[in-house]
């Protein structure tokens, strides 16, 4: 596998992680769990999802 292809796959991986984190945050805020602060979960989840998305886009952009 070429380095260029590897970088592209790593970028896609980070974007997939971002989607999974975001989906988990949405599910966590919908489920009726009484011991969690939903605003904190939502805030941290959005920050984490955005961070993983940025990593993915950086990797995809640097593949050239």
Overview of the molecule:
This protein is mainly alpha-helical and 64 residues long. It is 81% helix and 0% strand. The chain contains two helices and no strands. The protein has helices at 3-30, 38-61. Helix 1 (3-30) runs antiparallel to helix 2 (38-61). The longest helix is centred in the N-terminal third of the chain and has 28 residues, at 3-30. The mean pLDDT is 87.
Radius of gyration (CA) equals 15 Å
Shape: elongated
Into which percentage range does the β-strand content fall?
A: under 5%
Secondary structure category: mainly alpha
List low-pLDDT spans.
none
Count of extended strands: 0
- Write the element-wise H/E pattern from the N-terminal end onward: HH
Number of helices: 2
Helix-residue proportion: over 70%
Sheet with the most strands, sense and barrel status: none
Q: Kindly state the mean pLDDT as a whole number?
A: 87
What distance separates the N and C termini?
15 Å
């Amino acid at each position: 596998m070429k380095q260029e292809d590897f970088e592209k796959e790593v970028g896609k991986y980070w974007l997939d992680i971002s989607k999974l984190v975001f989906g988990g945050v949405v599910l966590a805020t919908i489920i009726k769990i009484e011991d969690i602060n939903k605003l904190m979960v939502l805030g941290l989840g959005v920050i984490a999802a955005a961070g993983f998305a940025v990593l993915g886009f950086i990797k995809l952009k640097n593949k050239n």
